[in-house]
Please model this.
Amino acid sequence: MRQLLLLLTFICTSISVVHGQEESVLWKISGKGLKRDSYLLGTAHTVSYKLIDSFPKLKSIFRECEFGIFEKSPNSIGDVKYVDIHTPPLDSVFTPSEYALIDSFFSNSPFGSIKPYNNDASLSGMLQAVVMLKREGTKNQEMFFDEYIQFFFIDTLKKKTYGLDEPEEMARSSARENHRQTAESIVYLIKNDVDVDQGLKPLFDISLYRTSLKSDMKLNKQLGDSEGEQVIRDFTIERHRIWLPKIITKVNEGPCFIAVGLGHLQYNTGLIQLLRQEGYTLKPVKLKKYSL
Model:
C-alpha cells in the first residue's frame, strides 16, 4: 500500500487543486522580449475532461495560441534520439489470475482488452487509467484530461502539437521502475475500494502542495521520508532539465499552450520558478467557473 501511495502522489494530489483553487493552475508567460503571451496549465491527468467546459475562458485561450505543447506528442521539439523503451510483457509481470482480472476490468471499460497491448503497454499509464475508471465521474472516460486537450487542438482547431518527453529519458525511467510493484498496485486498486485522495494525506503534505508554488519540494516532515522525496524528484527534475529549453524555444516562436501535470509546476524545481529564473514573467490567470 505504501508503494501505491508513492506512485499515486502526482496522479491524485492535483485533483482537489483543479476543483478548489482556480487561480493556481493556469499561468501566463510573458516578458523577455516575447511578442505575444503563452500559457502554462497544470493538469490533473485523471479528472473529467468535461471540467474544461465549466471554464469557457480556457477554450478561448486555446484558440489564441498557435500550437499546443504536452508531455507526450508524436511531434518532437528539436533533434531527438530515438531509442527502444523496454516495457516487460504484461503476462510476465502479472500472474495468470491477475492477468485475467485486469483484462476483465479493462474489457468492461472504454479502453478494451489489454491483450492486443500485451507487449508494449505502459504499466504507469495503466495505473492512471485504473484510478480514473474507479471514480464515478470518470468511469466511462476513454482518455485522460491532457489527451482531450491535445485532441481538441488537433481535431477541432487544426493546430499542431509538440511533445516534451524524449525517448532516452523515458527509457531510463522505465529501467528504474519496479514493474512488479506497479503491477501489484494495479491489482490492489482493482480489487479494493480505495479513496486514493484520502490515502495520500498521511504520506504527503497536501495543504503545502496546494498552496505553495515557491517552497522547496518537501514531503510530510513527520515521515522523514527520503524514499518518497526521491520518487517525486525522479518524476520531475530530470524531465524538467530536458523540457525547459524546449519550452523556451517554442514560446519564442509564437504563443503556445503548454499543458503538463500540476506537479511539474510546483516548488523551486518546478517549471514556474525555472522559467522565472530564465527571465520570464509568470502570473496566475483567474478562471471563472460556470456550472455544467
Remarks:
- The radius of gyration is 19 Å.
- The CA atoms of residues 59 and 222 lie 42 Å apart.
- The first strand starts at residue 26 and ends at 30.
- Strands lie at 26-30, 38-43, 67-70, 161-163, 256-261, 281-284.
